[in-house]
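Ticket #164: bound-state structure for 4'-phosphopantetheine.
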Amino acid sequence: MDKCAVYPGTFDPITNGHLDIVERAAKLFSKIIVAVGENPEKTPLFSHNERFELVKEAVSALELPNITVGQFTGLLAQYAQDTDATAIIRGLRAVSDFEHEFQMALANRKLFPDAETVFLMPSEPFVYLNSSMVKVIARNDGNISQFVPPCVEKALLEKIGGIK
Ligand code: PNS
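RESOLUTION: The complex was predicted; output attached.
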């Protein structure tokens, strides 16, 4: 039976850490939908559509046949239901991620009991990495090429150059 998993996130922007999780998830499920959503606690730098386009470009470079990219507004649980997902993938980097992720996983399970949240650990070089750090480094003229795919580096430099 085909097992579809949704890998949701704000992806503002997608990093090599996210891509590491995508590659790991692709080995476990027959289909992965990388789903670009909205986190009500965040004001993103990139628009929903810009984030979606960057995720599409970055993911296509992985050349994995079982990955698609989607976008959603509203509840993740509803999106998981609409896409017949049996799992929701989340990357877990540090203990500090845990409490929030635990709450989200339980809320999503209440809303859509047919999907299990599955936590995956990124490989060690990405354990400390997140999108906010990448934006801070870019804003302060640091080198971000080791943290993000080339399309994101270009987009970030253009966006931040325009804002500065
Ligand atoms: O990359 P992020 O910011 O950690 O991703 C968070 C995201 C977008 C997956 C989360 O905020 C989300 O699911 N947003 C949609 C609203 C929702 O369903 N929230 C969980 C139940 S309260």
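RESOLUTION NOTES: The chain has one domain: 4-127.
TICKET STATUS: resolved
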